[in-house]
Amino acid sequence: MNKVRIDIVSDVVCPWCIIGYKRLEQALMTLSDEVEADINWHPFELNPAMGVEGQNLKQHLQEKYGTNDEASDAARQTLTQLGNEVGFPFHFTPNMRIYNTRKAHQLLMWSSSEGKQLELQLALFHCYFTDNQDIGDEAVLIQCAQSVGLDPSVAEKVIRDEGWAESVATTEQQWLEAGINAVPAIIINQKHLISGAQTTELLISALRQITQE
Predict the structure, then answer these.
(1) Which of 7, 32, 136, 165 has the highest count of CB atoms within 10 angstroms of its CB?
(2) Any idea where the DSBA-like thioredoxin domain is (predicted)?
(3) 9 beta partners
(4) How many domains does the chain have?
């Protein structure tokens, strides 16, 4: 059995991040007799300056990327189909909003030490993309943390602690300085970078090649 360290740099409001992870999950299931993975998630905020009220998702994409309604609708259809293929339910709505994710990343960073990071990461993806909840809202975040077995009183302290906020910002800066400027970014054994939501087949091939080196 080959052991690998997999670092995933992502944001909770990035649909390609959950698709990329689910494809990685499929690859690791295929290689379950060959590869054992230690997965670690790292913060990357797509919109660090986003206000607490968030913004309508279509409006945000139009302002940031120049995406019109037709292109946005087509992208949503594609993402929904790809989500179905990997077993993740996207539920896009006309009023869907994008939110600030700093506090979510604070919880994710803390949850790593509690052995609950992967569970919380997946819960947050579902909370936002499937249940259309405001993942910048403290009550929603605390409920997410509690749903995976984390202490809600500690979770509340973490999301209100400036020290955790600074740790997230520092970590994000380190990834930027390392050349990571888009997500998802998957780093295997701290030296092999796979950018974007690559196919399961490519991930299987890459993992086999890396573990056989």
Answers:
(1) 136
(2) 6-207
(3) 42, 185
(4) 1
Residue 16, number of CB atoms within 10 A of its CB: 16
* Measured CA distances, 108 to 28, 75, 121, 185 (Å): 22, 28, 7, 17
Domain range for 175: 2-212
Read off the DSSP letter of residue 52.
Answer: T
Instruction: Single out the residue of 122, 94, 99, 151 nearest to residue 24, CA to CA.
Output: 122
21-49 residue pLDDT tens:
999 999 999 999 999 999 999 999 999 99
Read off the pLDDT of residues 42-78 as tens digits, 9 standing for 90 and up.
Answer: 999 999 999 999 999 999 999 999 999 999 999 999 9
Which tokens in the block code for residue 98?
């994008």
Residue 66 burial (10 A CB sphere; 0-12, 13-18, 19+) = exposed
CATH classification at residue 109: 3.40.30.10
pLDDT for the residue 104:
98
State how far the Cα of 58 lies from the Cα of 64, in Å rounded to an integer.
10
